[in-house]
Design brief:
The chain is an alpha/beta fold. The protein has three domains: about 130 residues, Rossmann fold, CATH 3.40.50.300; about 70 residues, Helicase, Ruva Protein, domain 3 (Orthogonal Bundle); about 130 residues, Zinc Finger, Delta Prime, domain 3, CATH 1.20.272.10. The strands form two sheets. A five-stranded parallel β-sheet has the order 2-3-4-1-5, with helices on both faces. The chain has a two-stranded parallel sheet with strand order 6-7. Helix 4 runs parallel beside helix 5, helix 7 crosses helix 9 and helix 12 runs antiparallel to helix 17.
Amino acid sequence: MALIDSQKFYRDLEKGQIAPIYFLFGDEPYLLNQCVERFKNAVLSECGLDFNYSLFYASDADVLAVRDAVETLPMMTPQRLVILKESQELTDKEWGQLEAIIENPVSSTVFVILASRIDKRKKHVRALLEVADCVEFKKPYDNQIPSWISHIAQSLGLSISNEAIHFLHRMVGQQLTEIESELKKLGEFIGDQRRIEVADVKQVVSRSKSESIFDFTKAVGENDRVKALELLVHLLDQGQNEVGVVSLVARQIRTLLAVKKGMDEGLQGVKLASYAQVPPYFLQNYSEQARGWTSQKLEETLVLLSQTDKALKSSPISGRIWLENLILKTCGEL
C-alpha cells in the first residue's frame, strides 16, 4: 500500500472502512495517541472492549504474546483490535517473529503498529509499507498551531479567544500534547464559563516557565545578547526541549519579519495586525522590536534557525553549544 493521506484515513475510519493492518508513524505523539482512541471507537463496541482489545508497548512486550493476540478470534464483536506502540524498539529478531502476520494479515483482527521514528532501509519497514495501510503524522508547521489550539479546545468543550490562542502558543510552543494538557487545566480553572481569555492563560500556564519563555523571546527580539544567553541557560535547566527553543525563536523572528514588512509598506494599527496575523493586543511589543531589525537580518536568521534545527537532530555536538552559537550569531549585530 502507498502512504495514505491522514484526512482520508480519518474519513475511512468514520465510515467503517477498516483494513486488517495499519502502520502509523511520525514525530507527533499527540496525533499518534489520538489514533488509538479513533480505532477503539471505530472497531469495538463498549461491551466487547474488555475481551477484544490488547495494547502492547514494544519495549517490554513479549512479541509471541502480540502475535497470539492478533491470531485470537474475537468474542461478541466482528473484530479484535491489537495496538503495538513504539515499534521502533523491536529487534530484527522480534520483527521476524511478526513476519507471518504482517505478510498475511488476520482478517478478524485490526492490527495497528505505531512508531515514533522509522528507517525505511529496514526490511520490516519496507514490508509494512508494501502490505499495511500507512499514515505518516508529522509535527504541524508553526503557522498551523493556532488552528490546532482552537480544534483541541473545541474537542474539550471549550472556546478560546484569538488573543488567548496567540498567548498560549507563545507560552507553550508547538507540542500538541502539552497544549492539550494546558487546555485541560484551563478548562478546570474557568469551570462553567467555558471560554478562555488571555487573563486565564496568564494565571494557569506555569508562571515560571511562561515568564522565562516570554522574557527569552523578548530578549532575542530586542537583540539583547547577554540577557538572551542567560535566559537560554535558565530555560534549558528548566527542561525546555532544545528543538523547542529553536521553534520559539523561529516563531518570534517570523512574526517580526511579517510586522517589519507591513511597516515598510506603511501599514499601521488594525491593518498592520491583520497583515502580520498578530492580535492587536501584542502589536505594539512586536512593532518596537521589529524596528531594531533589518528585513535582511531577519531572513538570514531564519536560515540560521533552519540550519540549527537540522544540527540539533543530527549532530553529536551538545545541543546547548548549537543554541549558544545561534544566539551569538543572531543577537547584537545588525
